[in-house]
């Protein structure tokens, strides 16, 4: 391939005012404004190829991630794609182990989110270069699927063929955010059932009586055979989690997600042990900051569902390691998605898991939330509650330039209008 | 007390070019420039009282912490000290659990370092307010010790009297940075012995033969009865750590510090178990990002020495919790210090541990590094290899304004001069 030297990195703070309508609200994040630090890599290639990447945030603090991306950019600009992918481990370590910057991580928090944004863009660029052409569906590609998938999966197999036909099973979190009224919940749930959804997640953890009422309502709506999951977003202590979830056991949730502090590995192990007799598993991962933490959770039998995230850890590189560890421990991977761009990104990873690693759909599904897809060049395609494999080259997170400009914080027109309203 | 409303927060990026002489070099941080994000809180009090706080970094990346401090400052400015300290838990949670900003942590990495800088300044302010007068030693204070210690320790006791007389035992890391030559090491070690030092730490982990030569040299210099510790700064995998340290066992180190990735709780447990028969303990903590992670290490018997850090976790608040947990698990606390300002800060915490919690000096000592103290208004006082309790009111990290201005990055005169030299 061409050298494809990266000659420029730009990063922008893009925020969507989702808190205005309580989309995404949960027990710990009561007013999220879904946001991204959005990275574009420019190259010196003949075709002026670019790489697009992002990391997800929920509003305030995005500017800190943007600052971190700028700090890391000096390690990226000037490198060629060829030298990066010929020693991708070395490049990963260069970003994560800079002798000075690693102190403010290492491999966690802001600096890890920034690393993810950059590496997501590098993977996108690599896939586009492999695909050669930009912004055109690859109609003649024998893999019949996104070039990113081809890069990670290698040869086509029967699981790949099955995915093209049926898609990967999804569940929806769109019906039951914590801030929604019972009426909203009923309406959204009924609509989702009509669209073919069979797996539903409910936010819990703020008030037990509310949770009982909401879980009862949704279980009645979806019936006994559909799947229900509950998600506390870290709200509880260990014992509180066990007591609380025991009281929701009658609604037969498949898992309790993020029952307590994401760093409390042994706490999750205690919760797992206590809830196992009730047939309820523990799911976590969206705030698990690197492969080493996932290793702790797997070794301690502290989770029964591995929720990888496309932006929390170091991009595809680190997620491949986590997917392989999960397979070794025989624990299903059920990705975290939603927010903005997370569905677009993580679909590639879970398809890789199925096609090349697990070859199983048992207890496996990928989260889906129906917000903000309209801002992407190649939005996710859901058919009959399944993710349809993307065909455009790349990592699917190129945003519409118009959307980016409108939502840039604080100067985009959306935010200027909100500021104006605040003043009135 | 007065309300003492916080009316302004300033934060500056202050860096010392320590990498020029290899001070602070270790197996993972080969070129640290000791730095701080330096916070000053201004109040509306009659006496124009200020609070001074900092968080420690090693150069690049400090600007990200500065950005995070600015983001958090909106939660601090406008609050009165009275309302903060009357519900300090609430204030701590306000900083660490902001519904939007917690996503980029939570309680880890950049945002946690920024939280520490701010809270260190709040504790400093509180102690100064309690002390009433600023910049004058409290000659008539019946506690005969810093007002910060009085705030946390409460009443004077015999352990406090003992500390005033003897001081708290320290060990030195100044003699054997990885980048020092054998000649430097020999000279520094001989000088330290002459000054009364009895406990020495050596950096290891880059090259086994080098380590054997260096440990052999220092053990010969200090003799069989003085204490030797070794520190790998996370360089190894788990099995590599066990093999490597086993080969250094003949030099009888008391502990191996940071043998592997700071997130690998169960890895540290394996190392602890393997090295116990050799009489070598595992020490870690300087990159352990919060109380919940320390809980994992204690519950898993993954360390035998708890190395608290004054800036990595959420200031005094979180360190008190860690000190109490360590006491419950009967594990000695041996603070991490050095860098810039860490000795000044952490001496207060280890004195609290002795005076009010552990009441034991068995296997306990506080790190000391003899760099950069000259930039502080109230530098640490070491007498016969012991920390002498500070008497000035506050948390001892007010810097000389002249030093701050000279070392501001990138515009201070020290950095402008280095840039000039680079161009020549």
From TrEMBL, chains A, B:
Catalytic activity: L-fuconate = 2-dehydro-3-deoxy-L-fuconate + H2O
Annotated InterPro entries: Enolase-like_C_sf, Enolase-like_N, Enolase_C-like, Mandel_Rmase/mucon_lact_enz_CS, Mandelate_racemase_C, Mandelate_racemase_N_dom, RHMD-like
Cited SUPFAM superfamilies: Enolase C-terminal domain-like, Enolase N-terminal domain-like
Span of domain Mandelate racemase/muconate lactonizing enzyme C-terminal: 182-278
Superkingdom as given in the UniProt entry: Eukaryota
GO biological process: one example: amino acid catabolic process
EC number, as in UniProt: 4.2.1.68
Molecular function via GO: L-fuconate dehydratase activity; magnesium ion binding
Entry keywords, A to Z: Lyase, Magnesium, Metal-binding
PROSITE patterns: MR_MLE_2
Cofactor(s) it depends on: Mg(2+)
Family recorded in the similarity comment: Belongs to the mandelate racemase/muconate lactonizing enzyme family. ENOSF1 subfamily.
Protein name: Mitochondrial enolase superfamily member 1
């Amino acid at each position: 391939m061409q050298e494809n030297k990266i000659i420029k990195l730009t990063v922008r703070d893009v925020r969507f005012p989702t808190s205005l309508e309580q989309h995404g609200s949960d027990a710990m994040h009561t007013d999220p404004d879904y946001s991204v630090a959005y990275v574009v890599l420019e190259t010196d290639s003949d075709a002026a190829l670019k790489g697009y990447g992002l990391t997800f945030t929920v509003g305030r603090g995005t500017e800190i991630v943007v600052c971190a991306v700028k700090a890391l950019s000096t390690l990226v600009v000037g490198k060629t794609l060829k030298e990066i992918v010929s020693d991708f481990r070395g490049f990963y370590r260069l970003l994560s182990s800079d002798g000075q910057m690693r102190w403010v991580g290492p491999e966690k928090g802001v600096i890890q989110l920034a690393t993810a944004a950059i590496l997501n863009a590098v993977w996108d660029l690599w896939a586009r270069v492999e695909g050669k052409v930009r912004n055109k569906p690859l109609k003649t590609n024998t893999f019949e699927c996104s070039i990113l998938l081809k890069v990670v999966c290698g040869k086509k197999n029967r699981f790949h063929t099955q995915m093209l036909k049926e898609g990967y099973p999804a569940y929806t979190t769109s019906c039951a955010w914590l801030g929604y009224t019972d009426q909203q919940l009923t309406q959204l749930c009924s609509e989702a059932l009509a669209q073919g959804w069979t797996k539903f997640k409910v936010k819990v953890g703020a008030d037990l009586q509310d949770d009982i009422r909401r879980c009862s309502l949704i279980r009645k709506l979806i019936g006994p055979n559909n799947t229900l999951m509950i998600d506390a977003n870290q709200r509880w202590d260990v014992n509180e989690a066990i007591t609380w979830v025991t009281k929701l056991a009658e609604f037969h949730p498949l898992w309790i997600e993020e029952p307590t502090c994401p760093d409390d590995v042994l706490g999750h192990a205690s919760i797992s042990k206590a809830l196992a007799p009730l047939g309820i598993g523990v799911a976590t991962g969206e705030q698990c900051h690197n492969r080493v933490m996932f290793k702790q959770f797997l070794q301690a039998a502290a989770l029964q569902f591995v929720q990888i995230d496309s932006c929390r850890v170091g991009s595809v590189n680190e997620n491949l390691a986590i997917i392989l560890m999960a397979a070794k421990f025989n624990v299903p991977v059920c990705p975290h998605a939603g927010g903005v761009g997370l569905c677009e990104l993580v679909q590639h990873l879970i398809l890789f898991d199925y096609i090349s690693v697990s070859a199983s759909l048992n207890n496996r599904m990928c989260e889906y939330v129906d917000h903000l897809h309209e801002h992407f060049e190649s939005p996710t395609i859901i058919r009959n509650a399944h993710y349809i494999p993307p065909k455009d080259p790349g990592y699917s997170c190129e945003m519409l330039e118009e959307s980016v400009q409108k939502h840039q914080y604080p100067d985009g027109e959306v935010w200027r209008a909100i500021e104006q309203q605040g003043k009135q």
